[in-house]
Amino acid sequence: MKVLVINAGSSSLKFRLFDMPGEQVLCSGIAERIGEAEASIHITRSVNGKDQTTEQQHALPDHAAAMQQVVSLLCHPEQGVIQSPEEVALVGHRVVHGGESFSSATIVTPAVREKIKELFPFAPLHNPINLRCLEVAADFFPAAKQVAVFDTAFHHELPPEAARYAIPHAYYEQDKIRAYGFHGISHKYVTEQARDFLDLPQAKMISLHLGNGCSAAAVEGARSLDTSMGFSPVSGLVMGTRSGDIDPSVLLHLMTHHGYSTAYVDQLLNKRSGLQGLTGRHDMRDIDKAAEEGDGEAQFARRLYAYRIKRYIGSYIAVLNGLDALLFTAGVGEHDSSMRALVCDGLSHLGIEIDPVLNGLPATGIRAIHSGARPVKILVIPTNEELEIARQCIAIPA
Q1: Annotated catalytic, 286?
Q2: pLDDT tier for residue 363 given thresholds of 50, 70 and 90
Q3: Which of the residues 19, 62, 151, 245 is marked catalytic?
Q4: Domains present along the chain, CATH in parentheses
């Protein structure tokens, strides 16, 4: 069974074609800078047992155009990996916000489309794009079932004490204002990997998804008990361009004393804060380089970034009443050994201590980097949202 996974962001579209249930990757790639003049598509195919990656420049004014180019590449008469769109049985889509309506992967019907549209105000940068990709894919793959896999679903059953805000109850009843959590597809995947690796079905884990967007999750067994992102993806940890936690009175002060509009404040929190606001750079690789060269702002940004993570680690150990494993995943979590060391520094009293030699080894799949003398396992786990989406797609009853 061929399953195509579409993982669309605000200006990108990742895709991966699987042969399931064997989980063989037939083709993968990403369309980047959608809507910009420098738009391109990277595609990786297996040729004679070896992966070959090519980059092609394309005019990609929107995600519909990107989808069309992706389908053309997949079905290319000479370099394609399928003969026709009819070969694809399922198309799985990452949808950022499922609200309280969706707790698992769902076959897309007209009613599901309408519900995703109703949730546009909750994820205005993502849900409209996700729905558009669903609609375009349905046209390109008419024989395939379209499946929505929601980033909020893993956190759907958060305990009420973790999900609710201390504001008048009417705002929850009328507007459904609560913490929803995000990065759920990634947190679900890596915590399953950790439970299998440790052979500990009810493991108490803190999962750290550290990329351009960052979130922490407290997970016991297969259940999310708390997570750092809340009503929106702005809250929680310091991120590439998002502020993370901030006293709401700061925003009221800026609006009152500087006359900022809500739209301006929204841009400030989402696009101009976080590492970008602290250093003028949003990529941790650039900040690491600047810090090594003695840039004081970059050095401070790294300390603040790590401090916020430590604060969540401490609080989540309390939530879990103990800790079996600390998990690092996503771009920074998987590849930045110095940040992992900075996060874990000074936590030996909590049973958390990194082995510097293991931590410095090149990344090759899931691996343990903790000191053997400490009780808490520290694991680096490459996330694979596309594979998790494909697995959830084929798990839906026929």
Answers
A1: no
A2: confident
A3: 151
A4: 2-150 (3.30.420.40), 200-385 (3.30.420.40)
